Structure formats: structure tokens, C-alpha cells
């Protein structure tokens, strides 16, 4: 089970939830949307649902901030089309 991390002022608070079930993939957002519980997820994963009011953020004063995501890849030519599509999507 993954620990949830919260930050209050400069204090790091960790919490290990005891749940009836656990989902570790894209179905997590669907379960939360269906009202099955709460989830600790990256803001970018739920930004649209938050902006539309479909979901609400709990404990915003305890929000963790992490370093931005980076993708390192070789600069050589000959990448597959799938790889190029992924890189282009991540640049947005």
C-alpha cells in the first residue's frame, strides 16, 4: 500500500490508508468519480474534473508540491513513430 504524503507548513505528514479495496491504474479516477471513495492522485490527472466541479479537492492546505516531470531520451535519429507521438504529447 502506498503512503499518502501531505505537507503542513514545513512538516511532512505521511498516512497509510486502510482501505476495502485498492486500484493502481486509470480506474482510480473512475472509482472516485463513481463515489466509491477518495484518492491521492496527481493534480494534473484530475485538473479537468476539478475545474468542472465533478470532483472536489480535500485538504488543499496540505497539498504536496513535487518537482516537474522530465523526459530524457537519446537525441539520435531513428525513433519510432509511437515514441515521437509520446514525446510530442508530453511536450504539451
Plain-language structure description:
The model has no long low-confidence stretch (mean pLDDT 84). This protein has a two-stranded antiparallel ribbon. By secondary structure, the protein is an alpha+beta fold. Helix content is 30%, strand content 11%. It starts with a strand and ends with a helix. It has three helices and two strands, in the order ββααα. It has helices at 27-33, 43-52, 81-91; strands spanning 4-8, 11-15. Strand 1 and strand 2 form a beta hairpin.
Task: Jot down its keywords.
92 residues, alpha+beta, two-stranded antiparallel ribbon, 2 strands, extended
Q: What amount of the residues lies in strands?
A: 5-15%
Distance between the termini: 32 Å
* Low-confidence runs: none
Query: Helical residue percent?
Result: 25-40%
Shape, principal axes of CA atoms: extended
Radius of gyration: 17 Å
Number of strands: 2
Placed side by side, the strands forming the largest sheet appear as: 1-2
Integer average pLDDT = 84
Q: From N to C, what is the helix and strand string? A: EEHHH
Sheet having the most strands:
2 strands, antiparallel
Number of helices: 3
- What structural class do helix, strand and pairing data support? alpha+beta
Short account of what is shown:
The protein has 3 helices and 2 strands, in the order ββααα. It is of the alpha+beta class and 92 residues long.
Question: Topology, pairings included?
Answer:
Blueprint: E1 4-8, E2 11-15, H1 27-33, H2 43-52, H3 81-91
Antiparallel strand pairs: 1-2
